[in-house]
Design brief:
single chain, mainly alpha, Rossmann fold, two-stranded parallel sheet, 2% strand, flat
Length: 223
């Protein structure tokens, strides 16, 4: 798990291979890790943002509403006919948009729930380790054979429901295609990852700072 999304093994392999092939000014494993980081952050943003399909439909509705308001100011037959046509198109588009929004929200809720279940599972495993190390075997057994199996069962149900939907709007796993997309899009993912970790340090320096850091040149010229 990274940025709340899962990383496929194929994505790890692709990050190592593609970064070694196309990112020449940095070294492994750092450049492969930065590719994974950038792909996971991008996927997390897509999960939290409105899907392109829904965004385009919403923009189209807004455009039609503006056109309709303009036609309502006219009184000729052509404008009246155009207004009725827009009403019909808006009705169909509104129904389509409502369906897309409901579908997106359902998928988003399911993704968030699976993410929370995975976090609970990892926290429970850590709690089991702590209980075992402190010889609190009763608590360790209760967690290991009670809470943990129940959380894993709930996660399995959620994952089966998500993977069974072949027309999903959202994805929650970074795969090799995501890694290839980051490499082909540029710029250097290492610089983007550095900006997220320390925006001030990664920001371009001004000319004065560059001049100040430049080694002073001696006024004496050799013979």
């Amino acid at each position: 798990m990274h940025h709340g999304v899962r990383i496929k093994d194929a994505a790890l392999v692709a990050a190592a291979v593609l970064s070694n092939r196309y990112i020449a000014d940095r070294f492994l494993p750092d450049k492969a890790i930065d590719l994974i980081d950038e792909a996971a952050a991008k996927l997390r943003t897509e999960i939290d943002s409105m899907p392109t399909e829904l965004d385009e439909a919403s923009r189209r509705m807004m455009q039609l509403e503006i056109e309709k308001q303009a036609l309502l100011k006219e009184t000729d037959d052509a404008s009246s006919s155009g207004s009725r046509r827009l009403d019909h198109e808006l009705s169909e588009l509104r129904e389509q948009t409502d369906g897309l929004r409901a579908r997106w929200q359902t998928e988003k809720d399911a993704v968030v729930q699976t993410r929370e279940l995975r976090e609970q599972i990892e926290a429970t495993k850590a709690e089991i380790d702590r209980a075992s190390q402190s010889y609190d075997l009763g608590k360790a057994g209760e967690l290991k054979y009670g809470r943990l199996p129940e959380l894993e069962r709930q996660l399995h149900v959620k994952e089966v429901a998500l993977t069974g939907d072949h027309a999903r709007m959202l994805k929650e796993e970074v795969d090799e295609e995501d890694i290839a997309g980051i490499v082909s899009a540029g710029p250097d993912p290492g610089q983007q990852a550095a900006r997220r970790r320390d925006p001030e340090a990664a920001a371009p320096r001004g000319r004065a700072a560059q001049t100040r850091d430049r080694p002073a040149r001696s006024g004496h010229r050799g013979c």
